[in-house]
Amino acid sequence: MSGLRGKVAIVTGASRGLGRAIAVSFAREGAALALCARGPDALRVTVKELRAAGADVLEVVGDVRDARDIERLAALTFDRFGRADVLVNNASELGPTPLPLLADYPPGAFADVLRVNVEAAFRLTQAVIGDMLRRGSGVVLNVSSDVAVSGYPSWGAYAVSKAAIDALTRTWAAELVGTGVRIHAVDPGDMDTAMHRAALPEDDPASLLDPAYSAEAFVRLALADPGTDRVRATDLLAPAG
Amino acid sequence: MTLAVAALPPELRASLPPELRGLRRDRVRLMIVDRAANEVRHTRFDRIGEHLGTGDLLVVNTSRTLPAAIPALRADGTLVQLRPCVRRDGEWHALAVEPLPPHRNVPLVLGERLTTAELFLGVVVGRRADIPLLWRIAVELPDVALMTGVGEPIRYSYVPEPVPLEHYQTIFATRPGSAETPSAGRAFSWELAIALRREGVALAEVVLHTGLSSYQDDEFDLEHRLYEEWSEVPEDTVRAVGRAARVIAVGTTVVRALEGAARDGTLRPWRGWTDLAIREGSPLRVAHCLLTGLHEPQASHWDLLRAFVGAPLLERAYAEAVERRYLWHEFGDSMLIL
């Protein structure tokens, strides 16, 4: 229960859903946390709860769309903790709901989804990976989705963005060979989160994964190399055999 | 001590980072000042590995650049730009200049309250006795949150348009605190740094949060008044120096940090303020070589270079750099003193 003691982890989109579950799991493993989210109220609730449980938490209200907020998150993390060991690029934009067909997709919304889900992950990784490369140690975890690899109608920009995250991860992983720094794309599975309800309101919550379950995959990835740059949480967590 | 050289032609001041001029950051030019051969040679930065090898240690400054031009609202409703260069114990020592070029110094009033657009920033409590252009401002907000929230990178007249902050960061930038970019390391790409490591060149860090390169006052700038800067030399770096055959300081800030930590003759871990001035004749106990950018010959920067190189060779290097149209300042070309 202390596999991440002494480590510093940054998690974006940390106030709700998977991001929050990852923060809780990392805190339980002893990590110090820099948590970022757009909404100050929801973030404060998460931060308070983790601090009450004894975690060392830095709270950064910010929007990863904004390059200034990304630089601010990196600067505040290094100012407070002096290092970054794990980065989880979790903050994601689903797009307009009900999800439109691509033929109907508002172009501005398309660009916004790519900006949050791809460009922000790229920028934040670039802002912190220098420290990891210099020390020869660090892990970057990007949240992907099964829509990145299978074509489902109306997942539009989100699917495009997650395929791009897979490509970003694959390329970066090839560049990081031998540096001691790892990067993985993680498909967390279909979880019972606000995002899933917005996308597929008719789904039965009982058929969905608890984000706390998927978050365990992120703990495992922070601790050990699975030997591949793309991982499905359910595969990683499935009992052997 | 001013070198016997002609003034720098203004068009040689780099107005944009190389990557916004269509060059990779590591493809700027590199002038080799070879002291043993008494020779000046010219190459490209990404070929620096031809001059380095096993046993060499590059010591880099991992200080991250803050957006240190802070817009503040004065009690009388006018805007002033604060440029804090020393921040300690809740107090800033800051230049106060006009918000727009030419950014002339603005006299503040003792007891004056300063605000940002939304927040109370601080009260003017005095000025530094040694450097009266620096105002002492009691600040209540956490520095880094405030500065990264409202600041812009400090920019001089040779950079006419705003450049995004990420272009000011070196690839090593970690802990925030520099008022201006520690630019000597700027030309390194990770591609180059990883390749150098593979060739046996080691890398170690110091932190030195840089101050300002100008007081926005030509006469005062000529006096080269130095003030204290925060620096840290970790134990790992002390050990790496002990193992190295040759120590290459990446930037004058690194020289200041290392030599400051070795003041009593031996390099020891250090964490604190340093006010060491290095100039011609200063002992160099740690740094054998220096990688640096090119800055105006009137700047205190060249005083420090004189600790490494005699005037005749340095004057020749300067003249060749001008003749070959090297670009100057934080976004410009580089020089390696071997």
Question: What's the layout of helices and strands?
Answer:
The complex is a heterodimer of chains A (about 240) and B (about 350).
Chain A: E1 8-12, H1 17-28, E2 32-37, H2 40-52, E3 57-61, H3 67-81, E4 86-89, H4 107-135, E5 138-143, H5 156-176, E6 181-187, H6 194-199, H7 211-223, E7 230-232, H8 233-237
Parallel strand pairs in A: 1-2, 1-4, 2-3, 4-5, 5-6, 6-7
Chain B: E1 29-34, E2 39-44, E3 56-61, E4 64-65, E5 70-73, E6 79-88, E7 91-97, E8 113-115, E9 120-127, E10 134-139, H1 143-150, E11 176-178, H2 190-198, E12 202-208, H3 218-222, E13 229-233, H4 235-243, E14 246-250, H5 252-261, E15 270-274, E16 289-293, H6 300-308, H7 311-323, E17 334-337
Parallel strand pairs in B: 1-17, 3-12, 3-14, 4-11, 14-16
Antiparallel strand pairs in B: 1-2, 5-6, 6-7, 7-10, 8-9, 9-10, 12-13, 13-15, 16-17
